[in-house]
């Protein structure tokens, strides 16, 4: 999907383009000899963000054929907490570092990197927000880790910061009620990936909301190892499992 990209085009340009393209295809599937009852959406990394956001948005649309499934490959899902265990343990990796991931978020949000260190230190959100329902959506205890308690910190005023709570921008921020009724979902996560916990938490929240979830976690995987399916045996296995899921669920 050739959506408009950041930083030349800020949020919600990529989201809007993705929604428009998906709706068009659902409404005109027959023109392309496609069964509209067997259409799903998938994406990896930033594409996983858009796939999840589009699925949430279209679930509220009336008069559209329903997506049969969504498949999210190491998706980017939240920008509220950069101190999850996977960010702490794997933020130094060259494949996708914490430094680079924060830059990606800021390019999408505002194309202003002046607050980069603030985001990296997790000081971009207020004490109140850190105690809100949104913080519970990114709870380290969901991945088996007790959160570290920190004292109150001063935080700067950041333009457009409320956007990080918008599910169109960060799908993990969707309310539980909005997760209920989403189509069967496939989530792939990799151990050596700052985004691992995002995917794990989304899979768990979807499951608790009653969504049928298939979660494949690759202990030796890294971001974005699926594109190396012809090099690494584990990536080849991951590709086979991903395709098998699609064949079974479309």
TrEMBL record:
PROSITE patterns: LIPASE_GDXG_SER (PS01174). Keywords: Hydrolase. One of its GO terms (molecular function) is hydrolase activity. It comes from the Eukaryota. Gene3D superfamilies: alpha/beta hydrolase. Pfam families: Abhydrolase_3. Belongs to the 'GDXG' lipolytic enzyme family. This is Arylacetamide deacetylase-like. It comes from Branchiostoma floridae (Florida lancelet). The gene is LOC118427050.
């Amino acid at each position: 999907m050739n959506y408009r990209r950041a930083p030349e085009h800020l949020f919600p340009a990529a989201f809007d383009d993705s929604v428009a393209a998906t709706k068009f295809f659902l409404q005109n599937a027959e023109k392309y000899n496609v069964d509209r009852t067997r259409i799903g959406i998938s994406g990896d990394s930033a594409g996983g963000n858009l796939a999840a956001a589009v699925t949430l948005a279209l679930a509220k649309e009336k008069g559209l054929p329903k997506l049969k499934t969504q498949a999210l490959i190491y998706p980017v899902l939240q920008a509220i907490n950069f101190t999850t265990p996977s960010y702490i343990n794997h933020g130094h990796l060259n494949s996708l570092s914490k430094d680079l991931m924060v830059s990606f978020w800021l390019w999408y949000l505002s194309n202003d990197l002046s607050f980069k260190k603030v985001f990296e230190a997790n000081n971009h959100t207020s004490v109140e927000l850190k105690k809100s329902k949104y913080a519970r959506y990114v709870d380290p205890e969901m991945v088996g880790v007790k959160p570290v308690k920190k004292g109150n910190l001063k935080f700067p005023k950041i333009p457009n910061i409320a956007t990080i709570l918008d599910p169109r921008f960060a799908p993990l921020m969707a309310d539980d009620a909005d997760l209920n009724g989403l189509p069967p979902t496939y989530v792939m996560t990799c151990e050596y990936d700052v985004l691992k916990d995002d995917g794990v938490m989304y899979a768990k929240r979807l499951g608790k909301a009653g969504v049928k979830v298939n979660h494949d976690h690759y202990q030796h995987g890294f971001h974005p190892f699926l594109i190396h399916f012809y090099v690494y045996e584990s990536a080849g296995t991951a590709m086979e499992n991903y395709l098998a899921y699609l064949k079974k669920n479309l």
